[in-house]
Specification:
The complex is a heterodimer.
Chain A (H helix, E strand, L loop, with lengths): L2 H14 L8 E4 L3 H13 L5 E7 L2 E8 L2 E6 L21 H14 L4 E8 L10 E2 L3 H4 L10 H10 L7 E6 L2 E6 L2 H25 L6 E7 L6 E8 L2 E8 L3 H12 L2
Antiparallel strand pairs in A: 1-5, 2-3, 2-5, 3-4, 4-6, 7-8, 7-11, 9-10, 10-11
Helix pairs in contact in A: 2-3
Chain B lengths: L2 H11 L3 E8 L4 E7 L5 H15 L2 H6 L10 E6 L3 E6 L6 E7 L5 H17 L2
Antiparallel strand pairs in B: 1-2, 1-5, 3-4, 4-5
The chains are: A alpha+beta, B alpha+beta.
């Protein structure tokens, strides 16, 4: 079994574990649709009656969820939620306010890149047959069912977000450079330095990263902001090396962090 | 304020910061530590070694030709579960601040705070 398969098996077991009440975590995604899909996943993973709270920049939304069903919007509701909906049971997917709630959530999630999630016990439970099954929500809310990005997609998303006016990058698979970005001169300079860096990196990798991880990255920057800094990412069997001005290298690390932070 | 108090203040000031330490890169020894829970010595040794590799050892030597060979000031090693940040002291290049951060910590804020902490440590002489 590969390390990746072992990790997937572990994650599958963790998904079966009931989350402790109040345990906080974050949904990350680019855009309202991705975040709303993450909320649907949270509903789909909730079996016992819970008050799921989703914290956004525009306010916190509280949902009553049980048996993998969205049962109600709970008070207090932030501005923009449908009038008179808080506390009212959503009997099934035919209820028009279910779609209205989806639109209101999308508006709330616009311009947000992370949503804080916590769950507490639901004090006033609705009937177990009340509510919209999570599997029906993607259709009525017009979002794609949540799907974890593959390592290749994650790396592609990261590299496509780099400003190649300032940065140069090489995507490496095995021992081959399979793609590059940036000006010809910058890519040339990076190609010249990449082998030097990788030689030192792999000879000391075990000292820097003692615990196995699906994804890891290394940022090394000189003093001052004008010189070039180096950023190297590995995810599964894929990797990429980036040269960018030191002044902007933390923003690049943050972009990667948002894609892979657990 | 002594070094430990400076480290405590930094840890309290950076959301998601679990540990701050001051290390001697040459000897790979931790000189002072502030931590949420008492770290085991093996973890501290591993952190000191990672700081040395990143700022003075193999990673630094192989990365620094990219910008002309000056020893690096900053290194960040990040996985999905944590970020470790190493920032060299401007006052004593053989010493560095080590921070263990949550994976979603604001790195920019953490580096800014770390620079301020190193200045405070340098100012106390």
């Amino acid at each position: 079994m590969t390390d990746f398969a072992r990790l997937e098996e572990k994650l599958a077991k963790l998904r079966q574990r009931e989350r402790a009440p109040g345990e906080g975590r974050k949904i990350r995604g680019a855009g309202a649709d991705a975040l709303l899909a993450g909320i649907v996943t949270e509903i789909d993973e909730t079996i016992l009656p819970r008050r799921l709270s989703f914290e956004t920049a525009g306010g916190t939304v509280h949902l009553a969820v049980a048996n993998r069903r969205l049962q109600a919007l709970l008070a207090p509701a932030p501005n923009g939620m449908p009038d008179g909906l808080a506390g009212e049971a959503l009997p099934d997917v035919e209820e028009p306010k279910v779609a209205e709630l989806g639109q209101a959530l999308k508006s709330l999630l616009a311009n947000t890149d992370a949503v804080g999630v916590s769950a507490t016990r639901l004090t006033d439970a609705f009937g177990s047959d009340i509510g919209v099954p999570a599997e029906q929500l993607p259709r009525v809310w017009t979002v794609a069912a949540a799907k974890a990005a593959t390592p290749a997609e994650t790396l592609e998303t990261f590299l496509s977000g780099l400003d190649t006016g300032n940065a140069a990058w090489l995507r490496i698979e095995g021992e081959e450079v399979v793609a590059s970005g940036g000006s010809e001169d910058a890519v040339g300079a990076l190609t010249e330095q990449a082998a030097v860096f990788l030689d030192g990196y792999f000879s000391k990798f075990d000292v820097a990263f003692r615990d196995p991880a699906l994804a890891c990255c290394t940022l090394i920057a000189p003093p001052g902001g004008s010189d070039i800094a180096l950023f190297f990412v590995e995810i599964d069997t894929l990797s990429a090396i980036v040269h960018a001005p030191a002044a902007g290298i933390l923003a690049i690390a943050t972009a990667w962090q948002r894609l892979v932070a657990e | 304020m002594d070094i430990t108090a400076e480290l405590d203040a930094m840890r309290a000031g950076v959301k998601g910061c679990a540990l701050v330490a001051y290390t001697d890169l040459t000897s790979q020894l931790m000189l002072s530590t502030s931590s949420v829970s008492k770290p085991v010595q093996e973890e501290m040794n591993a952190l000191a070694q990672a700081a040395q590799v990143s700022l003075d050892g193999g990673f630094a030597d192989s990365a620094s030709p990219s910008w002309g060979g000056t020893p690096p000031e900053l290194a960040v090693l990040m996985t999905g579960s944590e970020a470790r940040m190493f920032l060299r002291s401007p006052d004593n290049p053989a010493e560095a601040l080590v921070c263990v951060l949550a994976p979603d910590t604001d790195l920019d804020a953490a580096v800014t705070q770390a620079r301020a902490t190193l200045q405070q440590i340098a100012a106390r002489g």
